[in-house]
From TrEMBL:
<keyword id="KW-0812">Transmembrane</keyword>
<feature type="transmembrane region" description="Helical">
    <location>
        <begin position="122"/>
        <end position="144"/>
    </location>
</feature>
<dbReference type="GO" id="GO:0006629">
    <property type="term" value="P:lipid metabolic process"/>
</dbReference>
<dbReference type="InterPro" id="IPR005804">
    <property type="entry name" value="FA_desaturase_dom"/>
</dbReference>
<dbReference type="Pfam" id="PF00487">
    <property type="entry name" value="FA_desaturase"/>
</dbReference>
<feature type="transmembrane region" description="Helical">
    <location>
        <begin position="12"/>
        <end position="29"/>
    </location>
</feature>
<keyword id="KW-0472">Membrane</keyword>
<feature type="domain" description="Fatty acid desaturase">
    <location>
        <begin position="34"/>
        <end position="272"/>
    </location>
</feature>
<protein>
    <submittedName>
        <fullName>Fatty acid desaturase</fullName>
    </submittedName>
</protein>
<feature type="transmembrane region" description="Helical">
    <location>
        <begin position="35"/>
        <end position="55"/>
    </location>
</feature>
<feature type="transmembrane region" description="Helical">
    <location>
        <begin position="186"/>
        <end position="210"/>
    </location>
</feature>
<keyword id="KW-1133">Transmembrane helix</keyword>
Amino acid sequence: MKAETIPSRLNSVLLLAASLVSGGALWVASRGPWWATVLAALVFSYSANATFSLLHEAVHGVLFEHATVNTWAGRFAAAWFPTGFSLQRAFHLNHHAHNRGPSERFDYLQPGESRWLKNAQWYSILTGLYWVFAIFGGLAWLFAPFAFALGRGDKRFAKQTASATYFEAIRSLPPVVSRLEVLASWAFQVTLFFTLELNVVGWLACYAAFGWQWSALQYADHAYSPLDAHDGAWDLRVPRLHRWLFLNYHLHRAHHRSPRTPWIHLPARADADGPSWWSVYRSMWRGPRELP
């Protein structure tokens, strides 16, 4: 494989494999004893994060070489989250544009900011509630888009929560297509639920495990990093198998420096002396810091 080429065939195999594992984990979690549900939820947290990593590749246009295939595969991956592909792309590219700027310094208490709101944001990230908010954001876009207008503007809440920039980013979305994507993702979830004869406890256990692990990683790879759009992330050190299961998502500084580099090539661009995931995550529980 030549450097920087998109591993389309490998990605297709991974997307299929992760989907099959996720479906199997949901099935087991809905049928087994409590310990089987816990084990299945743990497995699902990894397979679903692998699927999200593939969605992340699609957002940057590097999941498949063919643009149309990339979009449809991204839509399928988004259904496992569940969210809409266009919505996720708008939010994520907005994150790249504002990374470590004033609106995305969730780890620092800046002048004029509310301490309780900062702490509420911070611990929602650490406990997985951030994923819940992301889910309801998609549903709001589908059923109550007027709610997004409340998060725009110059109000302190809008600025501190970053909703001002994120809600502004979705104004350019195709309204019908972007909502149909969210609707299709939930239709997929309902179909999955009844086809596999899942139960609520099994579904919630799996998605709670996934949501916690996903949410914690989303900011562990940024917390206390340099206040720079490109260098403001970490190439986190984790066990190699763990990193491969997440498709090198922990190599986040390399990704921010070169967003169009496919996941399989990120190790060649990564810093070898990055902090460990555990050291960053542990320090995050001490709460937001004063802006240096």
